[in-house]
Every structure is written in C-alpha cells, then in structure tokens.
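Issue 218. Parser rejects a valid record. Input:
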Amino acid sequence: MPYDPNNDYSVPYFWGTVGIVYDKTKVDIKDLEKEGFNIFLDTKYKGDIYLYDSERDSFMMALKALGAYEWLVKCVETMEPEIVTDEIIDNMAQGRKALGLIYSGDAAYVMSENENMGFYMPETGTNLWSDAMVIPKNAKNPELAHEFINFVSSYEGGNKNDEVFKYDGEIKKVISSLFSKVKVIASNAE
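Output the parser choked on:
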C-alpha cells in the first residue's frame, strides 16, 4: 500500500471493492449497465435505496458518476435514501430495499443469504481497498500479536478468515483459490 510500500510496518490481510447490491426482482440489470452509480438518482427507486454512512465511499460513487458534491446532495435530497452502516447487510439479505452501496464481501454474504440479490460494479470504476494489521509501539504482548499475524497470514488461517468474512485475502495462494469466487460473484451480477 502507498503508506507502507515494502510492508515494513503492516501486513495486508483483506482486500475488496465497493459496488451496488441489488434485488434482482426489483432492479433490471440493463438499468445498472446503462446508469452505473447514477442508478442512485433514478426516481423509480426513490425511497428504496441504501447509502453507506461513509464519506469516502459515497464521494467515490459521486465522483465516478458525475461530479461529487452536487451529485451526492442531489441523491440525498431527491432519493430519500437510508444512510446506514452495517445494517445494509441484513436489510438487503432480507430484501428490504432495491439498491444499496456495499462492500464486495458484504455483497457475497447478502447473495449467499438471498438468491434474489446480485452485485454490480459500474464500468466507470470503484474503490479498491485493503485492510492491514499492525502492532502498536505500546502493545502489551507483541509476541502474541506476531503469532496472530503469522496465523492470519498462513494459508490455513487466511482461508478460514476469508470463508467467514467473505473478503478475499492477501495471501497469493488464497487469492488464487478464491479467484473463482470473484468470477462467480461477477457472473451472478449478469
């Protein structure tokens, strides 16, 4: 990552993207392909959308769609979204709204819980992020922290972590074994 290019101080363990989780019984994939993130301004979905309570992800969506601040204000003022955090996961799994801005791993969980849900990443692009582990300078038990990092970084630990949280790990073996899952998610969006 740019903040630690040689991984001297951090160990990446998850990566993902941001996209649109949608109810296939309410949203036509052709609308998503045509509108991308602008679907969040399509008034036929007014009052039936979720946005993450995250400036980083919401502004990314607005930047990719049009021109950031004005787009986001228009979306919030005209579309009556529920601004949420992790509530989107269970709510979309239960089919409570038509659309939501969501992290890829959360979308994989939603789709595993409800076959009517899909995941779409607009062609205009999206965020690509990575989570990393670090040991603070004042850690009370750095030896145990190193053991934990070593376990999560192992194939076995990384694979278990990926299975539970549905995000792809940074370990090359895990990434290659899970790459087919990414293809499956993408094909489910079609």
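Fixed in the parser; the record now loads. Strands lie at 11-23, 49-52, 82-84, 99-103, 117-120, 128-133.
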